[in-house]
Specification:
Elements (H helix, E strand, L loop, with lengths): L10 E3 L5 H19 L4 E5 L6 H14 L6 E5 L1 E4 L9 H8 L11 E2 L7 H17 L5 E4 L21 E4 L2 H11 L8 E4 L2 H5 L4 E5 L5 H10 L15 E5 L11
Parallel strand pairs: 1-10, 2-3, 2-6, 3-5, 6-9, 9-10
Antiparallel strand pairs: 4-8, 7-8
This protein binds 2-amino-2-deoxy-6-O-phosphono-alpha-D-glucopyranose.
Amino acid sequence: MNITKKQKIPYEILPYGQLLPIRIADIIDNAIRANRDNGRKTVLGLAAGSSPLPIYSELIRRRNYTNLDFSNVVTFNVDEYYGLPPIHPESFCSYMGKNLLDHINVKEENTHFLDGSVSRSHIERHCSEYESAIKEAGGIDILLLGIGRNGHIGFNEPGSSIDSRTRLVKLDEMTRQDAAQNFGCLQNVPEYGITMGVGTILEAKYVILIATGHHKAELIRKTIQDADENVTASYLNFHVKTRIFLDRKSASGLKPG
Ligand code: GLP
């Protein structure tokens, strides 16, 4: 694999506490209002993990205090653990309900999840139906992503190909170790996940990647400045509309210039 850098991904550095979630919520809020005014739906791609949590809180706050209307919003989650039913407390489906969807007026039929409980024999069909549903919705307008400690986006672990589609993947040891605390111990962490592919992600109209904390600093340098081929997020260099949002800690590894 040889990644030729096509463009430098634009990035913004903002204080994590307040400004960063407000800035990203503004982008989503503006899109929802503009699309609604034009009679259009807004299709969001959503990620789990700790990074998007302040953004989800800010969106809930706007629903409660500014009447932001989610009735025209459609959501697709990026990934899910394979082997967990949607109601499992650690599924990303439960996470999304708890942290966003149960608190806003999105219509249940407009929310889409990869199902970690489908049988192996049905996974391929399930994944291709997910891809079709994204297409039928008109594609993803804004896709919110975090970045794993090994550089993954969704569950596209190192070695994922640029044209990969939604599929079953074996989780990296680092990914499982990072999830161990949530599951009580490493043995309880599923060994597989289902994820939108890199190719699926690159089809989104706008991608927002959030990275915060010192532990993401080296990764971010590798993604933005080195286009390191072992960091899956580097594929975003091929996407014309990606913006990375950093706090000062995650930006601390960037070389000047
Ligand atoms: C998990 C999820 C990703 C998420 C990543 C980063 O592995 N599969 O979708 O983006 O972790 O998590 P965090 O934001 O907690 O660093």
